[in-house]
Structure formats: C-alpha cells, structure tokens
Input
Amino acid sequence: MSAPGSVLSAVRPRRAPVRPEARRAAARTALLGTLLPVLAVLIWHWGIVFEWQLPFGIRMAFLPYPGDVALTLWDFAFGGIKNDAFSGELWIHLAASAGRVFSGFLIAAAIAVPLGILMGRYRAVNALFDPAINLLRPIPATAWVPLVLLIIGIGDQATLFLIALSAFFPIVLGAISGSRQVPQRLIEGAQMLGTSRAGVITKVVLPASAPAIVNGLRISLGLAWVVLVLGETVGVRVGLGATISLARDIVRTDLIVVGMICIGAAGFLSDRLLIWAFRLLSRGRPLIK
Amino acid sequence: MTLSSPTSVSSSTGRMADISVAGLAKHYDATDGSTVIAMTDVSLTVASGEFVAVVGASGCGKSTLLRILAGFERASAGTVLVGGVAVAGPSSDRGVVFQDYGLFPWLTTRENVAFGPRQRGVDRKAAAALSERFLHTVGLAMVADKYPGELSGGMQQRVAIARVLANNPALLLMDEPFGALDALTRSDLQIELRRIHRQTQTTVLFVTHSIEEAIFLADRVVVMTGGAAHGVPGHIRAIVPVHLPAERDVNSHEFNEIKREISAMVHEGVDYV
Output
C-alpha cells in the first residue's frame, strides 16, 4: 500500500495541459524512481549467486531467483509454464481476497463514518463511545485471532470480522477529527439559512470533513489487506494469504514472493480505486484544506 | 431611550420585523470560575424596515448583541423579540452576513445562493430561479459557476449577501461585513447595500467599528461603550438619529458633525496609549 499522504495531493480536480519541459521533468522523475527497484533486483540476484549472509541472519541462498519469481508470477496469472496446481489460479485467489477486504472494509466504513461524525459533533455521543473505543483500539488484530477462532471458528466469517474490526478504528478516528475541525462559521451559516440539525450534518459537516474521512479510509483499506493475510493463514483455502500460507507448507519460496507481490499490487490498486471513487463522488469540487 | 422612526417605511414582505430588546445581559463563566459580565441592561427597539448601525470599540458587546439576535448565543437575562416572537435559536427569518463570509467552499456561487431556499423546502427549479435573481441583484450573474475560493473578498461578500436575500429574511444581521475589504470595494458595497435596503425594505442591524460607515448607512446609530476589558460591562451609551438625506456626502459639514459627536462618545472611557 502506498503511504496514506494527504488526500488533496492525490485528488486533484483538474489537470493542466502537459508541456514539453514538464514531460521531460516527469521522465526524469520516473527514471529516478525506477533506479532503486532495478538495483534491488540486481542485488537480490547476485546475493543468491554469491550466497550472501546479511544482517538479521538473512541467508540469501534460500531466496528464489528474481527470474524464477517472474516466471512463477506469469504462470500464476496466465498458466502455460509450469502447469501445476497454481497455474492460472491468481484471479480466483485475488477475487476471494478482494471480496473479503472490500466486504470487511465496507462494513467498517458503514458504521465508523456516521459514528465518528456524531462523536465529533455531539458531546454525549462522544462520552458514550469514546472510552470503549479507546480501550479496544490498542488490541492488535493478531491478539484477537485465538479468541476469534474459538468463538467464530475457522473460515470466512472470522477473516471478515478481523478485517472489519481493524478497519473500523482509523475510519472512526478520521471522522471524529474531521467533523470536529469543521469551521463553526459554516455551521452557523447553514443554521441561519434554515438548515435542520440533520441537514447541518449531511450538508455541511460531511462534505467539510471529507478529506479527513478519506484519509482514515485509506489507512483502513491498507490495514484491511494486512489483516486479510492474517485471517487467511488460518483455515481458509482460497485467497492470496491462503496461497502464501500453502506455499510455505510446501516450501515454494518463489510462490511466497509471488503472493507477496500480488498482495502489494492489490493493496496499491485498491488505494487508487478508493481515490478514484472519491474523486468521482466529489466531482472535482474544492474541499476545505 | 428614544425611538426616532425614519421616513415612514413599510416592509415589502408584509412581515413585521421589529426588534425589541429589553434588559439584555450576557455573562460568561471565565476559566478561573468567576463570572464575567460582558454586557448589561441593553435595551433597544428597532422599527420594521429600519436600518440601525451599532458602533463601539472592541469588546463592547456589539457582536454579542448581534449573535444573540441571530440565535447563535443565549441571553443571560432580558427579553429578545423579533417581530414580537422571542428568539430561540437561529432561523431563516434572520439572515446573517459574517465578516468572513462563511460560504460553502464546495458549492458554486449559484449553489451557495440556492442553499437557503433548498433547506427551506423550495424545489430545485424555484431555488435555481431565486439564486439567479439574487445573483443579478448583487451583480454576480457572470460568476455563478465559480467556487467561492475563485472569487475576491468583495465578490464573496456579495454572494453572502445574495444567499441571505434569497431566503427573503425579515431581518438582516450584518456583523462587520465589510471589515475585511479594501477601501474601494468597501465603499462600493456600502452604496450597493443602501440600494438593496431601499429595494427590499428589510430591517437591518449593522455592526461595525467604522463610525463613518455607520453614519453613511444607518437611520440611527447605536453607540456602545464599556466591555469586560474596561472594567464596566458593555452597554448602550447613546442612540444617535442620523437626520441626513438619502444620498449622503461624507464630506459634508452635517455628516462630520455627527461623526464628531459619536467619536467623542466611543472614545471616552477608553484609554489609548
């Protein structure tokens, strides 16, 4: 997942026409950006060839060659190279994982956005939920796993629960801080124009806190992919996390790395998708900075 | 306190929008637990259709008076009636124009002006028509599709005035509305506000720290002095009727006569270093 920076930098309403010098600058930025990954792949390859020992006890000899990983990735996606149990299976696993991530994420968002806004605006709502939320928040998803396995059992539901639970907190915090920072002047403006209490929330507080809410959503979506792997390593057969887990059992390091790459790419793409959806929804309207 | 009715006016809306404030006081609880009396014994009557300006030094309570009338703050004591009805919270009958505009940055100019009518249940088409009409009134039809962030301060304040007018309020409350604008824009808007007031005959309470602006615009000028910083709670020092023709010359002898009189009252008791 890309670092959840400012939404405003990622969500730009309009694009200026590209000029030649701007294109040259963009090309240079792209070149600089690819330098490090290319270097990393080369070091990766030589590290295996020369059986390097790195800090933290990393033994490079145990890694698959980058070339093998690339082949496995191709085969995992399209088949036709190895023709084993994983050939061409990527899309089934990706669909299963993405389905879990988005379901859990949407459940969390559907509860956390309204709750966070109400907590930010109404003292009584905040007093009611704040202690409970802050007591539950520090418990990591990993610590929930044993209990979840006992009370829900192995399977889809447990994964979904862990994702929704983990995604909930960043969203609720984003919504609280966003709705608290709405300028009082905008609220007063709406009130004196005859806006109802509910109208103030939906017509003013919601759009005014949208950037903070989207930041919370982005953090949560990234976290959802993290927790997905955790959830899928226990008792789920289909999914990218399950693939990694199975690859470990059969000692296929190339497949493990392929799974990692796929999850990273899926996390990155889902973040882009979220930004794109938000841009579509806000139709390029200027937001409060 | 005298009530000098201006050249007889009647509200074009037919709604009564007279203000009756009696024995108004405002207390605050300070952080150290003591009570600060910001304003005491403010009594004021404004006739429907009248334009009244309130002047005074910072902290005299003039903005607090306006905010209580708007329904944003509660009075600690006293009665506040608008059109004979006690003020209990904000209402679209009492439009407010703020110094910092308070426009919704994510709405276009057109949408900002249509916002009030929409909230009052006016259908989309009729609200759009109202928006169109009042953008014409303030001369901004050409920027209807721009966002507030793309407009100058003067234009934003025109939009703020238009969005309030679109609600056809009985009372217009203006809290130092031109305070953040440059002198030229300010003077343009003053002239425009006078024209709008003549057209709509809406009752206006206009808070300003510019004595000249108050005399230029108002039928009567309420002078407030005191304030927590001066050890005396804010109160009304005097109410000065402005017996000047509709077209006012700020350089005339009569204008300056009134200006001197009010200036003396505002400055007395204020220690300038």
User: Anything to note?
Assistant: Chain B touches chain A through 27 residues (CB under 8 Å).
